[in-house]
Amino acid sequence: MYVVVAGETMLPVGEPAGRPVDLAAAVRELEAGRPRWVWADTREAYPPLLERGVRVARCHALALTEGLL
Questions:
Q1: Average pLDDT for consecutive 10-residue bins of the chain (69 residues)?
Q2: Total-model pTM
Q3: In whole angstroms, what is the distance from residue 13 CA to residue 55 CA?
Q4: What are the φ and ψ backbone dihedral angles of 38, each rounded to 5 degrees?
Q5: DSSP character at residue 38
Q6: Which residues pair with 39 in a beta bridge?
């Protein structure tokens, strides 16, 4: 998992840590900062979060973006 802070320049925060032990808890915690999530495919990434009661406000699905191109 990468965390990127976007401002005038985009800066990664820390080293890639791999997948957190509890992804839903990590997303819930980071969502408080109103990030824009980027994942490969919403159909794969989002259902496990929804099952745990985690919703995100903003995201980009690369599969959809690729389809537009």
A1: 59 62 88 86 91 93 78
A2: 0.69
A3: 23
A4: -130, 120
A5: E
A6: 61
